[in-house]
Amino acid sequence: xxxxxxxxxxxxxxxxPARPGGFTYSAADExxxxxxxxxxxxxxxxxxxxxxxxxLAKWAQSSGAGGWxxxxxxxxxxxxxxxxxxxxxxxxxxxxxxxxxIPHTAIIPTKKDQLGVSLGEFVGxxxxxxxxxxxxxxxxxxxxxxxxxxxxxxxxxRVTAELATALRGALTVLRDSDVQAVVGEAINRxxxxxxxxxxxxxxxEKIVTDGGHxxxxxxxxxxxxDWLVEHSDSVMDAVTGGAPGWTPRFxxxxxxxxxxxxxxxxxxxTRDMPxxxxxxxxxxxxxxxxxxxxxxxxxxxxxERLKSExxxxxxxxxxxxxxxxxxxxxxxxxxxxxxxxxxxxxRASILSLGARMTSDDRLRAKIDGWLEDAAVYVVTTYRDxxxxxxxxxxxxxxxxxxxxxxxAHIGRDLQFIRINGTVVGALAGLxxxxxxxxxxx
Length: 441
Description:
Elements: H1 2-13, H2 27-62, H3 68-94, H4 107-110, H5 112-126, H6 130-140, H7 142-150, H8 153-173, H9 176-193, H10 197-210, H11 214-230, H12 232-241, H13 249-272, H14 277-295, H15 297-312, H16 314-336, H17 341-359, H18 361-396, H19 399-440
Helix pairs in contact: 1-2, 2-3, 2-19, 3-19, 5-18, 6-18, 7-17, 7-18, 8-16, 8-17, 9-16, 10-14, 11-13, 12-13, 14-15, 17-18
């Protein structure tokens, strides 16, 4: 007895490895099998008790004990028949009774694949129907529940953190060289496909009309004046250096000083006088140039050639490629910082979305519709693959191990069928015998 218990304990602690395509037979399964064995012993013991009662009742009947013995014998006999019939039925599910090749026995190991096909068809017809999925999702009200869940600050924080983690993961997986190549190719293709001169001309025309270029002109005048003040010698040297060799040096110097003064006066007046003729000339030049950019064929062609030359330079391509590295570093830093503007805005958007989903019926209905359509699409599109997964999975199970697994989980309840069969059979036999006696009387 002790050896048996120790053997069972060792079996309970052992975890059977899964065969290819099969289950993992765990210690919990072994514990359930022990429960099945106990119920088998109980059901078999009840059958033995009924058999003993039958034998004693028949002996008492033959010894003239009285009419009661016949009733007891009839009840016990019917109880044995019920017990044996249910034993056969329960055993036939998992194996061949007494090893005999009786048809329609050992149903689970021999019909496993057919059961898998039937299970897949049952799931496909009753669970993967578009109408059933849509109706179930509509009854659940995912939009309302999701909105209420997202409206909670702690839930919004959690979603924001998960999105940040996903963003960091995606940015880590992406290779810089691949993204840089894609970005560069996209920019170049878009630039080649679209002429930029008309757009530049329209923009320049708008700027000139609104006077937006005046501040730029002011800045240029200020910087030009400051430069002339600081580099007067350079201007005079440039003038005297271009003078003929036969002119006296003092004459060259006087001419240089005169040119410098006139130039400084011109720049100063242009800087200080908003209505200076030079400013008007600049306005007319920019306006004419804006029109040429939009309508003059030669100007537009020259701008396009210039665009191609600029984009073709290695420095520009390197700048385009390096832009991704800067953007990625900025996004990773923002995703890691809980107080970053990116995460704060995402969190605020999630809270706002949750509040709107709980209060806005149209938005909630729209989200419910999207979710229903997505679920129905997945179900109807991949229903065959899902049912085939069930069928192939069941087909890959090892028959013997499958039988052991199923018996461990439902065998205990099936043994109650044997017990019930014994009791019900005895009661039925007693009733039938009683009615027969009454009718015979």
